[in-house]
């Protein structure tokens, strides 16, 4: 009895399963036919202009920085400053033992005075000899002898004065002064130590801190606009603490770096508060007027594995990939090339779109905003 009951039931279940499978297979249709358009917001590419602003990074450097060394070998007598002091131009930094050099300077001075006195006497004798020769009291040869002696002493005086100048210069080397105002670094010699002439290790390094310069690189495509700008064009530097400094362009290199396609530039900044420290990294901004072209909201631009692109909305309502080049960005707007003015592109919702997919605009196209159109 139980066997007869199960057989019809199993048959019924088998038939239902087959019908369900057939029904499921019959519903397999191409996905595209039932695909719903992706809702997007569009913008139209407009002709306009954006500020031509060079934005890059720079590094602070000193206008002047030198290693101070001794020009003579001598014992260091005194150090007249502390490490890290700000010194003025001409301020005495080091004094070397000057006793020998001072004595030599005195000796050379005395020699000049001695030879000068002898020359005065020789000139007087020559004058008397000329008078006596004219009166026929002495022979002409005596005059020649007196003149030769005076000439020899004149030459000796010139040599003595040269020796005096050399000894005076040598004595001046015992006093080492700051060639310009700046900040001192580490002192590498102490009082009583023997310093060598032109040693590889400097006595101290002096760095000028006001003004300073910031060096940065400019892309070669911006070079024509930079060359056309007025002399001393303004440069803005952004410090790590968020503060901004204003300076002026003072240097532009004479050639383009072939490896990077950039030109070295330098701007000068006042640094009275010493916030611009040599080696500090800063942001740099230089405005060079306005640049005309095609404008598009930056959010409409997608970044692919190889290039940037936009989704162009074709006449049939399908999204088409269009490669673009971004020439400049300013306040959410991009100056681009690669598309024509009037092209409708997807501004919002592009992340949900696939190439060739149908799209539906949520609202009427939005024009690029925040720029001057023409």
Outline:
The protein is of the alpha+beta class. The chain contains five helices and 24 strands. The chain has a six-stranded antiparallel beta barrel.
Question: Can you give a write-up of this model?
Answer:
The strands form five sheets. This protein has a six-stranded antiparallel β-barrel. Strands 1, 21, 22 and 23 form a four-stranded mixed beta sheet that branches. A four-stranded antiparallel beta sheet has the order 3-10-8-5, with no helix packed on it. It has four domains: 96 residues, Beta Barrel (conserved putative lor/sdh protein from methanococcus maripaludis s2 fold), CATH 2.40.420.20; 92 residues, Efflux pump adaptor protein, beta barrel domain (Elongation Factor Tu (Ef-tu), domain 3), CATH 2.40.30.170; 62 residues, OB fold (Dihydrolipoamide Acetyltransferase, E2P) (Beta Barrel); 75 residues, Helix Hairpins (Orthogonal Bundle), CATH 1.10.287. It is elongated. It is an alpha+beta fold and 374 residues long.
The whole-number mean of residue pLDDT values reads: 87
Strand-residue fraction? 35-45%
**CATH architecture assignment of the largest domain:** Beta Barrel
- The CATH class of the largest domain turns out to be Mainly Beta
Number of strands: 24
Low-confidence stretches: 1-32, 365-370
Q: In sequence order, what are the helices and strands, one letter per element? A: HHEEEEEEHHEEEEEHEEEEEEEEEEEEE
- CATH topology of the largest domain, anyone? conserved putative lor/sdh protein from methanococcus maripaludis s2 fold
Largest sheet: 6 strands, antiparallel, barrel
Helix content: 25-40%
* Alpha-beta classification: alpha+beta
Overall radius of gyration: 44 Å
Number of folding domains? Answer: 4
Task: Please state how the strands of the largest beta sheet are arranged side by side.
Answer: 2-11-14-13-12-15
How many H/I helical runs?
5
Pfam families: Beta-barrel_RND (PF25944), BSH_RND (PF25917)
Domain Multidrug resistance protein MdtA-like beta-barrel: 211-289
Domain Multidrug resistance protein MdtA-like barrel-sandwich hybrid: 65-206
Signal peptide: 1-20
């Amino acid at each position: 009895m139980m066997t007869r009951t199960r057989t019809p039931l199993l048959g019924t279940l088998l038939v239902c399963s087959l019908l369900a499978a057939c029904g499921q297979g019959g519903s397999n249709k191409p996905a595209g036919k039932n695909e719903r358009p992706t809702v997007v917001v569009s913008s139209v590419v407009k002709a306009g202009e954006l500020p031509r602003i060079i934005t890059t990074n720079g590094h602070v450097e000193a206008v002047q920085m030198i290693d101070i060394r001794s020009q003579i070998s001598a014992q260091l007598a005194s150090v007249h400053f502390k490490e890290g002091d700000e010194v003025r131009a001409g301020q005495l930094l080091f004094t070397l033992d000057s006793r020998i050099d001072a004595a030599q300077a005195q000796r050379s001075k005395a020699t000049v005075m001695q030879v000068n006195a002898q020359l005065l006497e020789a000139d007087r004798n020559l004058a008397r000899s000329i008078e006596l020769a004219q009166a026929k009291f002495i022979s002409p040869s005596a005059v020649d002898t007196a003149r030769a002696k005076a000439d020899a002493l004149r030459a000796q005086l010139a040599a003595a004065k040269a020796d005096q100048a050399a000894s005076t210069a040598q004595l001046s080397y015992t006093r080492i002064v700051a060639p310009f105002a700046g900040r001192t670094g580490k002192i590498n010699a102490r009082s009583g130590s023997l310093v060598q002439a032109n040693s590889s290790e400097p006595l101290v390094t002096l760095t000028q801190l006001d003004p300073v310069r910031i060096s940065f690189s400019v892309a070669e495509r911006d070079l024509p606009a930079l060359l056309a700008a007025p002399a001393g064009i303004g440069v803005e530097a952004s410090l790590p603490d968020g503060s901004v400094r204003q300076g002026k362009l003072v240097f532009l290199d004479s050639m383009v770096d072939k490896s990077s396609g950039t030109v070295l530039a330098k701007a000068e900044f006042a640094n009275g508060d010493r916030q611009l420290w040599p080696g500090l990294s800063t942001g740099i901004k230089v405005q060079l007027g306005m640049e005309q072209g095609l404008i598009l909201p930056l959010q409409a631009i997608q970044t692919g594995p190889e290039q940037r692109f936009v989704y162009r909305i074709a006449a049939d309502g399908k999204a088409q990939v269009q490669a673009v080049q971004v020439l400049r960005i300013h306040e959410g707007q991009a100056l681009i090339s690669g598309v024509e003015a009037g092209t409708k592109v997807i501004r919002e919702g592009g992340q949900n779109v696939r190439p060739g997919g149908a799209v539906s605009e949520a609202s009427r196209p939005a024009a690029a905003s925040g720029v001057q159109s023409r």
